[in-house]
Amino acid sequence: MSGEIDRSWRDPELLAKALPSVILQTGFFLAPLLMTMALTFQRTKNFQLTWTWSLETWTDIFTKPHYWTILGHTLFMAITCVVLCLLIAFPVAYALATRLRAYQNHVKVLITFAFLTDATLKTFGWVLFLDKNGAANYIARLTGFEGDAVNILFTDWATMLGMVYNLLSFAIFTIYLSIDAIDRSLILAAYDAGASKFRAFWEVTLPLARPGIWAASVLIFLLAVGVFLEPKVLGGGKSPMSAELIRQTFETRVNWPLGAALTLVLMVVAVFIVLLFNRIYSLKRHMGPI
Amino acid sequence: MAGNILEIRDLRKNFGAYQALKGVSLDVAQGEFIALVGPSGCGKTTLLKHIAGFEEPNSGSIAIDGQQMLGVPAAARPTSMVFQKLALFPHMTVADNIGFPLKLRKVDAATIAKRVMAMIELMQLKPEYLSRFPRQLSGGEQQRVALARSMISEPKLLLLDEPLSALDVKLKKVLQAELKRLHRSVGVTFVHVTHDLEEAIMLADRICVMRAGEILQMGGPNDIYYRPADSFVAGFIGDTNLIPVEIAENNASGAMLRAPGLHATDPRVPAGFVAADLGTGPALLMVRPELMSPLVPGESADFSIEVTITEVFCKGGTVQFRSIMADGAPVIFELPGASRQPADIGDKVRLGWPKRDIYVFREKVAA
User: Fold this and answer.
1) How far apart are CA B182 and CA B50, in angstroms?
2) Which domain, by its residues, includes A111?
């Protein structure tokens, strides 16, 4: 949408005022990044970093499919997590903004409580729940299921459950805000023009909630790519994801160059995917409503 | 009654304990321009929402073109609404906004484009606006787009919910003229909600004054202006003088007025100038400011009073004088503008007015 272009950023006084902050922030962002980059071209010997330039680490990364399998798995998990979060969060946010206005604040407080509770705590809570002798199987037995009906602990299913559970509130809030901001008279105008409830939702509510859905997707994707708690605790570390691999490389294997390189690869791929989606999103916007 | 596009019978609506509509009945003829007027909270917008189908009444009925509308959703009613905040879809271009009702009716794209173009011409919008988004247009242009979207589906009733209230005075005047032109050229029945009685009098064929969920008065602009139902309606438009009088006698031949300070050559007012429901006792004599004029010594009028001028307002075409009677009651009178002022602050003047266009009626009835 080509509105009036805001040119206030060209104001030299404004730029001068922003300069110290800009320098500080780029400095603290770029310097570690450059250091990480430099680190990838070093070597380790007997678990010691030796400051000698080499391409050993990158050769290692581009020749061993193991790292890429893990990266692929991480991206698959992250994208699945985004899709699941959106599928669950949208109806919740929609109901919260439209149907449950009377209980809105109560529900928001409950979600905030769940959100503020430490993720480690919640994740271990799921372990207790999903355990062979845990609450889930107890309930399953009570309702007539045989044996261990719930047997997903230490699998990807449990990891996904934990990820969705821990990241869901980000999606709910982001989408809720965008739906809540939609003027009610727009929906009435759609009905008045002859739209069914579904049509009004499809033509008006959904397109206007799109920025919120998009923001939630990016947020969750970036957070999901970096999870290490859930695959370790709920997934049992059996199929590690990138973040856990990086942690192991730094801490257990004490191979800093490799860890740094894995970090960079993950970053570049994640940013690339976000940019790609951004491109599709803005293209869609230019084509107007579907 | 045949020929009525809209028939509302004893419509009642409660929001909890609050009675928003207390038995409203209204008939609107095909092609009429009706204005629903009243202060905020009088139920005028609620009534409009019932006609549009956004609200269902507790009891009563609504028929549009002979069809009962109760239980019919807004989408299926032959009505179209122009919203107070216009409610243009921000994510759609002007063309998509205007064409939206037709798209929902599965009209083919070529026909939609043709009819959108026709609407653009009718609304005197520039064709290059079609590809713009609503927020890139000015307030007046957005208004025209909203009207175009509401009219493209050729509704039987066009409902306007104070669409001009957010505009500045100058633009308002332009769009008022536009609405009137549109109504004449298209021939659709308009139901226009406004809190501005002046706007209603300018635009509407008939005006329905509402208060506290009831219709207080229904009539043409002249009826409302010269024959208000009570002091509430009289005070709702412009300035007016309401002089407290005592009715000594009231019968078919007229009413005898008496009031301190009021001189009359003949205190009998013909029955046509007296509200039908008025008996004897206290009442109000309404004299519009433009009817009064100063009397030169020796000159007499049907009615006259003596006042002291307290304030002078030059309004361009007219000059308005604020004054008080001997007992302190305020009197406003208005004279055609002139480069030389006939009177100034502190002057004592005798004001007279003829026995026409006056009205005697009761005090405001308790809501």
Assistant:
1) 24
2) 56-286
What's the fold here for domain B4-231? Rossmann fold (3.40.50)
Domain B239-361 matching CATH 2.40.50.140: the answer reads: yes
Fold match between B4-231 and B239-361? Answer: no
Per-residue pLDDT tens over the stretch B79-122: 999 998 889 999 999 999 999 999 999 999 999 999 999 999 98
Are B161 and B84 within 8 A, CB to CB?
yes
Average pLDDT over residues B2-6: 80
Angle between helices A256-286 and A12-39 (to 10 degrees): 140
Radius of gyration of chain B, Cα coordinates, nearest whole angstrom: 25
Best mutation target among A184, A185, A187, A192 (most B Cβ atoms within 10 Å) is: A192
State the ipTM, two decimals.
0.80
Rounded CA-CA distance B164/B144 in Å is 11
> Would you kindly state where each structural domain of chain B is located, as residue ranges?
4-231, 239-361
- Count of domains forming chain A: 1
Q: How far is it, in rounded angstroms, from Cα B7 to Cα A193?
A: 22
Chain B positions touching A195 (Cβ under 8 A) are 75, 104
Q: Do B153 and A193 touch (CB under 8 A)?
A: yes
> What is the phi-psi region of residue A147: left when phi exceeds 0, alpha when psi lies from -120 to 50, beta otherwise?
left
